[in-house]
Amino acid sequence: MLRSVYKRAPRLRAAVRGVKNAAVYRLVQAAFAALSLGSFDRAMARAELVGELAYRCLRGTRRLALEHLGMVFGDELSPSDRREIVRRSMRDFAKSFCEMARMDDVRARFAEYVEITGWAEARESIDRGAIVCTGHLGNWEVIAPYFTEIEKIRVAAVARRLDEPRLNQLLVDFRARLGIETILRDSPSAGRQILKILKDRGLLAMLIDQDTKVASITVPFLGHPARTPVAPAALAVRRRLPILVAYNYRRPDGGIRLVMEKPLWPDETLDRDAAVRDLTARVNELLGQAIRAHPTQWPWWHRRWRRPPQPRLDPDATIL
Question: 148-170 in b/e burial notation, b at 16+ Cβ within 10 A?
């Protein structure tokens, strides 16, 4: 009864969302403050404990993650293996948040903390700029700072505007301090900003492993049809640019290994719509392979397959 009343009351829903968003902002502020205390290693240890606590307390989140693991791996994993993957995933997710809070410490030790593979070949393909596609694998917020700090390459991240303005500004300021430009998708200047970063032979970074309310097409992801943002492939096809699939995962001895896959170029033998679909599917395939190889590094609790497929969706007119 109460749920049906809530669904029919848009003002009430907006008010509740406002309270939730404000609470999240305060929580993030408090977490950043707590993680700034003590040494980096101690902060990372505290973050792991928080991740363990989340695993034990968030029953619904844990149940959804286990369900998704069953969808993807089937009988390949035992129930105990699935539980351990979810536990480690939550612990590592908390560690990624800690690394964001202590990014100055990470930057000071980039040389030994971040190991990169595949960059030599990828670099040869960015004479006209390139699109970097990644997912929430490992600590995705480390990828862009590595290139601005070590490789001295201009990077811009395309992102949605967060519902909580203060939290949105916190993230924009965080990235700006690391030399990363944030391009908000709903900004009137987004198109000009995207073209400018590519003209300057920079990297345009996009996260595409979640079902978000953007122009999408349905292609396989981890063996199941999934609505996937189409902007990277549409832009690559229209401007004949490569897509660099990048991801990272935690090394057993500490630190992060950043992997750059071989550049993916649009198939020029296909018409535009088919080329966009083909390129999006190839990006998803590489990200899916990385997640299968490092399952503890991906947030399995995201509702990746929450909306039904729309195989005839044609959003290309909205893309540059």
Answer: beeeebbbbbbbeebebeebbeb
